[in-house]
Structure to design on (880 residues):
């Protein structure tokens, strides 16, 4: 039925499998009549579409097969028999079974590991009871011309007050005042800590904490009170009760804080990880805050809000511009809302999306990328099983024919092969759990995580494993099962071999799809590797080698030249310099600027960030002075400053050349002076960002960082010398020196992580794809064995046979390669665009990817073809 009038085949097969035999002929007859009528009236496409809809419509209870009581026992026995047959076939064909199990196990293992990685990333900050109602306050700034300037993940001192008093939709606001690296002491225990935060009591209304000692109410009401984490309590007090004890904070003086509570540590899946939460009331007791009247500027205070029930964040955001204009005065005739903004970022997006409107690839990109890689590996494994299964089932047609003669229907044949697929999948799943446990330490090392297979608390892992078993079993086994069950009994018994003729298109398509995915992975690995090499090899415009940086305190700043001379007394210390920031940092500091021309003040409308440096900075970092003179050792007054600018600043200021910028009078913040020099552009920030205009000047104000250029010989002794001198000026703190090259590399750690992980998974995917291709080649060559033997008898050489076989597959690989190119180039170009400076995906990369793809394919094909090319023709022609 349906052979001559073009009925869609798969709906017919579906009805044959699902419908009871007594109703099947009637249903198919009616559908065929309707199809013929619509074919004449509406055309082939619409007739086929209606036929499919009608086929599904006929799957009604009356028409379906119904197992009766006695059939249930038969079904149980039958399925038990299917399992026995499956295991017997595995034992009979050990190599085939091993290849299938290895392929599926690797595919499932990769996807399982990536599932754990993604699950961990998506779980960040979701442990808070009201996570969906919590937002971080982000401040974007704009230049006078409306161009986006810096975007800050923190707010100003009084931003929280602005929000708290003007929005009934906001239930609670909290702000943090962080103090970095304080030294904390209790008895004979003294530690340098990472952070000590002063925070408002409303933190306990917004975020979720589990209390071990004390309670939220009143814990942070009094000055010099502190709530600490459980691990911190154990660190300082051991097994003693921490509540009521006193910690001494050493930070330019001794301050005593009373412990008023102990909470459980922040989970690893939190973008915050604070061990000390001091009371906000301490801020006023610690220093005079009456001068902090600004709502914008000095963005050092992380601020969060929690919405009231049923409130919409969009309603708050729409009122922000008007509120800014109400509280902040115009500047140079421009409304404050044109210079400042306010973004409310959902708490659960902070980890994945970082700070909004900023450059660089976000973690969400890598989450999506790893999911895509995991899915590709899994699909390749499933397709690999399909091809291998179909190839091996070619020798089981007589078994199918005999079973059909004995009364087995197409449905039971399909069930048998599906059961075999599920058996392979379940065994592979068990192996995958074992492999995943073994592989987790390596993944944790690559990805800097602490993932684990927690079967007791991670219920979604059980759901994942169940879905994987069903999905992979049905996906991998569906085609072999339904394909093999459709063969006619007489053909199966007559030939005993599978004639691929009309049905080879599907399997070939699967191999094409496999190699599309494989080519995408190959191109991806090549592009990522070349981009990272480009970053490592590209000259950043400054000398980063053998430069050690460490923090400077007030004692060092007050005696800069003395401290530098002490360092330079060691011949292995070549140069030393003080500055507010060093290359690989952020250009986060800026002030308003204007030209002081004879005819009046001319405002500079774009953002011009500054770096305060001393006279040795340029020489230490090898930054070239293009024109003018360097800064002098003697620090000038605020009214007679010397400014240096970079080439980008020259261009943005509208000068025709660096020389044209010299001697222009300039006001920068409260300082006035002249542009006395222009330096060559260099990459202060990472290659994710374009080079920004920068202004440099010297000042008696506090500089935060010391840079030291050292000799390559005996670096450990030199570092020890630097540490000894550091301790003289800063005895309470540990030496925090690090090489600038390490800071440079850390800028690209997410990309390096992605490269390492994707290389591992891509290699496994390519391996599985090769097994799939090997299966198809082996299957096809078995069918062509007599042809190859005849060619050998007639004088064909091994080389000519190998060329013939490779030629038959070259079209398949070519189609896959050219289909994969636009997909991979599009995805990778989006990633490359996150860098301001990147490679181009040109002919060289495409040629290399093509060469690698074809080399892998040829080696895989030849590994099987050689076996047939070298075989004795008598083996295959014996029966002729």
């Amino acid at each position: 039925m349906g052979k001559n009038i073009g009925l869609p085949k798969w709906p017919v097969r579906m009805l044959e499998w699902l419908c009871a035999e007594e109703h099947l002929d009637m249903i198919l007859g009616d559908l065929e009549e309707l199809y013929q009528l619509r074919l004449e009236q509406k055309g082939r496409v619409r007739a086929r579409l209606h036929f499919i809809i009608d086929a599904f419509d006929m799957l009604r209870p009356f028409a379906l097969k119904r197992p009766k009581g006695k059939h249930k026992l038969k079904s149980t026995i039958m399925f038990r028999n299917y399992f026995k047959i499956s295991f017997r076939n595995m034992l009979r064909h050990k190599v085939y079974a091993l290849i299938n199990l290895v392929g599926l196990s690797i595919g499932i293992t990769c996807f399982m590991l990536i599932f754990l990685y993604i699950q961990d990333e998506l779980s960040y900050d979701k442990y808070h009871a009201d996570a969906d109602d919590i937002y971080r306050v982000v401040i974007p700034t704009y230049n006078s011309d409306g161009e986006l300037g810096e975007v800050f993940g923190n707010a100003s001192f009084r931003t929280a007050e602005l929000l708290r008093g003007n929005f009934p939709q906001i239930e609670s606001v909290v702000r943090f005042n962080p103090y970095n690296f304080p030294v904390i002491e209790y008895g004979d225990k003294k530690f340098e800590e990472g952070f000590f935060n002063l925070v408002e009591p409303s933190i306990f209304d917004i975020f979720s904490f589990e209390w071990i000692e004390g309670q939220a109410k009143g814990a942070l009401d009094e000055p010099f009170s502190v709530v600490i984490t459980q691990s911190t309590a154990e660190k300082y007090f051991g097994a003693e009760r921490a509540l009521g004890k006193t910690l001494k904070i050493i930070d330019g003086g001794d301050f005593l804080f009373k412990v008023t509570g102990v909470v459980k540590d922040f989970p690893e899946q939190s973008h915050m990880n604070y061990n000390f939460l001091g009371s906000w009331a301490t801020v006023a007791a610690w220093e005079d805050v009456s001068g902090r009247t600004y709502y914008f500027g000095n963005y050092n205070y992380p601020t969060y809000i929690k919405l009231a029930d049923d409130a919409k964040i969009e309603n708050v955001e729409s009122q922000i511009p008007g509120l800014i204009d109400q509280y902040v005065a115009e500047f140079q005739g421009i409304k404050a809302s044109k210079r400042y903004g306010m973004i409310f970022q959902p708490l659960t997006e902070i980890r994945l999306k970082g700070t909004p409107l900023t450059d660089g690839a976000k973690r969400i990109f890598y989450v999506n990328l790893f999911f895509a890689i995991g899915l590709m590996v899994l699909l390749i494994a499933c397709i690999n099983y399909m091809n291998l299964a179909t190839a091996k089932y070619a020798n089981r047609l007589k078994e199918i024919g005999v079973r059909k003669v004995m009364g087995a229907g197409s449905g039971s044949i399909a069930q048998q092969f599906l059961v075999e697929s599920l058996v392979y999948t379940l065994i592979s799943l068990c192996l995958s759990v074992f492999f995943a446990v073994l592989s987790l330490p390596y993944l944790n090392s690559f990805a800097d995580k602490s993932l684990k297979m927690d079967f007791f608390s991670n219920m979604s892992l059980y759901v994942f494993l169940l879905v994987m078993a069903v999905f992979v079993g049905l996906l991998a086994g569906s085609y072999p099962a339904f394909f093999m069950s459709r063969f006619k009994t007489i053909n199966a018994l007559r030939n005993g071999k599978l004639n691929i003729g009309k049905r080879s298109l599907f399997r070939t398509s699967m191999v094409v799809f496999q190699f599309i995915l494989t080519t995408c992975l190959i191109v991806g690995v090549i592009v990522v590797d070349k981009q990272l090499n480009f970053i490592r090899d590209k000259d950043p415009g400054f000398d980063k080698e053998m430069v050690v940086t460490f923090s400077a305190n007030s004692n060092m700043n007050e005696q800069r030249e003395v401290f530098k001379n002490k360092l330079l007394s060691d011949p292995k210390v070549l140069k030393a310099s003080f500055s507010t920031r060093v290359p690989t940092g952020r250009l986060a500091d800026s002030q308003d600027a204007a030209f002081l021309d004879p005819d009046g003040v001319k405002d500079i409308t774009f953002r011009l960030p500054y770096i305060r440096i001393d006279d040795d900075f340029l020489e230490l970092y090898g930054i070239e002075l293009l024109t003018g003179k360097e800064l002098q050792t003697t620090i000038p007054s605020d009214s007679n400053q010397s400014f240096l600018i970079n080439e980008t600043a020259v261009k943005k200021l509208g000068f025709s050349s660096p020389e044209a910028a010299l001697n222009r009078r300039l006001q920068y913040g409260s300082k006035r002076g002249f542009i006395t020099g222009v330096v060559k552009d260099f990459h202060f920030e990472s290659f994710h960002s374009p080079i920004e205009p920068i202004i440099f000047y010297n000042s008696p104000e506090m500089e935060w960082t010391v840079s030291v250029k050292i000799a390559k010989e005996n670096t450990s002794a030199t570092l020890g010398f630097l540490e000894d001198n550091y301790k003289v000026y800063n005895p309470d703190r540990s030496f925090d020196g690090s090489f600038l090259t390490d800071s440079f590399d850390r800028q690209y750690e997410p990309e390096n992580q992605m490269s390492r992980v994707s290389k591992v998974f891509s290699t496994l995917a390519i391996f599985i794809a090769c097994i799939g291709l090997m299966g198809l080649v082996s299957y096809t060559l078995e069918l062509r064995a007599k042809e190859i033997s005849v060619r050998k008898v007639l004088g064909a050489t091994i080389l000519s046979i190998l060329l013939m076989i490779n030629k038959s597959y070259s079209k398949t690989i070519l189609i896959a390669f050219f289909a994969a190119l636009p997909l991979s180039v599009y995805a990778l170009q989006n990633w490359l665009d996150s860098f301001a400076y990147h490679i181009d995906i040109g002919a060289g990369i495409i040629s290399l990817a093509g060469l690698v793809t074809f080399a892998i394919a040829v080696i895989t094909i030849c590994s099987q073809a050689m076996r047939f090319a070298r075989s004795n023709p008598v083996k295959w022609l014996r029966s002729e």
